[in-house]
Amino acid sequence: MKRAIDALVVLAGFISMYNAKMNPQCSKCKAAIRKYNYSNKEIERMRNDYADLKKEAEKPAEDKMDMLEFLNKNYPTADDFLLSDVKKKYKETFGIVKTFDVLKEEIEATKL
């Protein structure tokens, strides 16, 4: 009986050694690593979403500022300004590209 128990202990040792060579990580370790990587990915996604929301909140909406306010804010003392500068600044501010004709009409409508 004693020899059978010793043989089983030795066999169990060989089995665990074989499993250690074939599976260097246990399933719990792999699950913990997957959970950690998922958490990092989610945190990064949330940070990016927050940065986008913050950027969107800081950016003025087009309906909050009409063309007269836009021109007074960006070109307060300029009597003459290039239409291409206005187009570029308008695109940076609102993210909307307007044609020169539309910008010209809106600027003429302000009667500056």
- Oligomeric composition of the shown chains: single chain
Low-confidence stretches: none
Main sheet characteristics: none
Binned strand content: under 5%
Helix content: over 70%
Which outline best applies? rod-shaped
Number of H/I helices: 5
User: What is the number of E strands?
Assistant: 0
Number of domains: 2
Secondary-structure element pattern, one letter each: HHHHH
Average per-residue pLDDT, rounded, comes to: 81
The helix-and-strand class reads mainly alpha
Give the radius of gyration: 34 Å
Distance between the termini: 107 Å
Please give a handful of descriptors for the protein shown:
112 residues, mainly alpha, 2 domains, 75% helix, rod-shaped, DUF3839, signal
Compact summary:
With 112 residues, this protein is mainly α. It is 75% helix and 0% strand. The mean pLDDT is 81.
Write the layout of secondary structure elements.
Layout: H1 2-22, H2 27-58, H3 67-74, H4 83-94, H5 100-110
Signal peptide: 1-20
Keywords: Signal
InterPro entries: DUF3839 (IPR024365)
Can you put this structure into words, describing what you see?
- With 112 residues, the chain is an all-alpha fold.
- It has 2 domains: 24-58; 60-112, no CATH class.
- 75% of the residues lie in helices and 0% in strands.
- The chain contains 5 helices and no strands.
- It has helices at residues 2-22, 27-58, 67-74, 83-94, 100-110.
- The protein is rod-shaped, with a radius of gyration of 34 Å.
- The mean pLDDT is 81.
- Keywords: Signal.
- Residues 1-20 form the signal peptide.
